[in-house]
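Quick log. Single chain, no ligands specified.
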Amino acid sequence: MRLFRPVRGHREDATDAALLRAVADGDSAALAALYDRHAGWLHTRLTRRCGDPEVVREVLQDTFVTVWRSAAGHRGTEAGGWLWTIAARRLVDARRAGERALRAERTEYAPPPAPSAEERVLAGLEYGDVGTALDRISPELREVLRATVVDGLTTRETARLLGIPEGTVKTRAMRARAELRAALAHLGPSGDPSPLGGPA
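-> predicted structure:
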């Protein structure tokens, strides 16, 4: 499904950064080019996390509306990690809105369904101590953590998504885990096991 009509004026080899600069200047053709480049894999990943096609379509559309509004704030060359961060957050928001609507429609009490492990992780990444700690590490390390830990991508897939060598992915993943642990320790020690599931 396309949100935009085909438009011309941007070369297929234009970088994500160049397209985002054009979007920040109000260029809808650049947004359409970004959509064509990234909507397919975003839709696939969202579908793996949500079985409702309508919610997936809404989240995908909301993601690109957010890109339109905040393209000027993007830093870096590749947009993939940034786009997925937006989409994952929109999915968490959509699920919460759906749960609130469902609770409002219930006429008799029924215990709410327990959130899935994935929903708890995504919520923690945005609102919990992990989210606060993630905000304290650099964006390039954060992108690697989101791709490898939240999305479960391999080193090769992460390298392709972020446009960096596989060795850089491994190095950043180790640094990101170490920095995240330090940031979590700074927020307050807890007896919980590492949220990253293993040693750095």
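Residues 45 and 124 are 19 Å apart (CA to CA).
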